[in-house]
Amino acid sequence: MMERPLKVQKREQSIQLEKCSGPLNVQKTGQNTQQLEKHKVPLTLYCQCIEYISQNLQMVDSFFGFPDLVAADIFQKAEKLGKFERNSDENDSLRNLQLFCNEYPENVLVGLDLSYSYLALNYWLEHFLSFNRLHSLDVSNCFLGDDHEILSHIAHLKCLKYLNLRKNCLSDKGVSSLCMPFKVFKRGPEHLTILDISENGCITKRAVQKLQCFKDLQKIDITGINIKVKELGEQWKVCPERVESITCVKNEGWASQVIQKWVELASKTPNQGEEPKTAKFYALKKRIKSQTVIKDLGTISFMPQYRLVLHRVNSHKTIPAAAPSTKCVTPTEHDDHMDSIMNLYKA
């Protein structure tokens, strides 16, 4: 047989190599693209510094001199890393929070809403006491009582303007503890403008008289407290308002998302299984009594969408020289009508 020319043999070999190497090249290119996707885009030097500081807050003594924009980025990164949560013994969440509150108090949090969040308030109490530049605060429906530690903290908030203390089982003692630091030492919420003390049935006219030390106070919600219009005097006037609340408070500041996480974590209680039969042997009557009390608190009847609000009467009036210095307040038909309305708000 005649042998093929050398050029033809080389051509056939090259074609065979191309056929065999084709799918291998495709596989190689596919693997290369997957490897490139795995590689992350390199971080800038600024982002690397922010991440390093956020991961090592325990090594930071103070943020004195740091710009607000840089501190805000560090705070957000620390929040993502869980530096403000009680996830381990090594993570001192209280100290991490105080690092920012000491230097940027008005940026960290100016508005705090803890309504219906008594579990979160008690669990994170030390953390909440770090916020000392609050402008608005809502701790309604928390059943605090007169001796709760948060009341003494509220009494020293200099920048506080809006405060909601609705349904907290307060009496005149709790209100007096709120007024005492400012009344004696002139330290406290001197700019307090709107106050809600409604649905605290043990508060009387004495508490309203003590609140007169706050000169900027213009509105007080007295719905459901033990007071009559005739006992208010000339400095206050009752005006029903068709609103759900005279205060509108929401979380404002860098820590707004942190507060939301705290409240969600506190509200998540472990799933309780069925109670054993022995648990119902002695505590049956006591448990039924506590349930009825909570049920009664939720069925207090009020006039829908109306709040009884005290408005401060402008005292800057020109008084004639012949007018007497003191004047006795006589009951009027309007006062009697308002008293009858206020009785509807009592439990």
TrEMBL record:
- Keywords from the named record: Leucine-rich repeat, Repeat
InterPro entries, per database record: Leu-rich_rpt, LRR_dom_sf, LRRC42
Q: Which Pfam families match?
A: LRR_6
Classification via Gene3D superfamilies: Ribonuclease Inhibitor (3.80.10.10)
Q: Which family does it belong to?
A: Belongs to the LRRC42 family.
Which PANTHER family does the protein's record reference? Answer: LEUCINE-RICH REPEAT-CONTAINING PROTEIN 42
Name the record gives this protein: Leucine-rich repeat-containing protein 42
Species name: Crassostrea virginica (Eastern oyster)
Lineage of producing organism? Eukaryota, Metazoa, Spiralia, Lophotrochozoa, Mollusca
